[in-house]
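Can anyone check this?
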Amino acid sequence: MEVLPFRPMSATSEVPAAFRHAAGDRGAVRLIREAISDIRSRRRLVRYLVQADIRKRGADTLLGNIWWVLDPLLQMVVYVVFVTIIVPRPTPDYPLFIFAAILPWKWFTATMTDSTSSIVGKDQLIKQIQFPKLVLPTAAVVAGAVSFAFGLVALGLLMLFYPDRITPYLLLIPVIAAVQFVFTLACSYLVAAGNVFFRDLGNVESHLLRLWWFLSPGLYSLAVLDELNIFKEHPALRTIVGLNPFAILFEAYRKVIYGSATPKEPPGFPDFTSLALLLVGSVVFLAFTTYVFKRLEPNFAKVI
């Protein structure tokens, strides 16, 4: 019997044949359709990864997933102490005001952190098993959404102290969360692919997210900015601030949960026009980042 010579497996051998074609052979529409097919055909894998991620978070700490209730509440306490005591502001019911922004922001930052390491953290799996890598950041985003839903328990506990703000408008939170989900998914694909080639991205990301938080109306409302001279003298600057995706999201969450502080108004409908524009922009952004991810995917095994 003839013995075939041993041939070591190359870094690209695990890549499907369809992925080994030149990137230019596949157009943007085909890559996006392929990405959708990858996710749909690997639903069970995504579900498994989401469950594994949630179980891992619960096993890493004593209180497990209860931290999704405690952590945003503790963050709220820190900011309330800082703003109401050290830098007094006349915002009524400030704990609820700021919590309406902290909870969705925690969802976004936690998901970005997990998505950034979703590819490089599974390097051994990627080298051994052939599967579409898009499921990894997708699972991180879905796991983050599940944790956000769990974090709504903290919101429910806080709302007990503000019974006058418990209104049917709270039912619109999932609508706003759906818009944030699409935007977060688009960002996750970009950072997941980018971190494969630029490993410093994770370090830079934490600083960028911190800056993004303070530039977004989390500790304050957009109405406060309208009173500042710099925004009165430069209305274009105010428009740019309003285009911040989290300016739109924070204001929407706050409208259905808290209402408005200046002028003081009860909870009501969010600005559906702004949300619709953000959704359209997020879908376009998602199509772009999906295309970028699929173009770069054949090189992941080589770089990792």
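Reply from J.R.: I decoded it. The chain has a mean pLDDT of 80.
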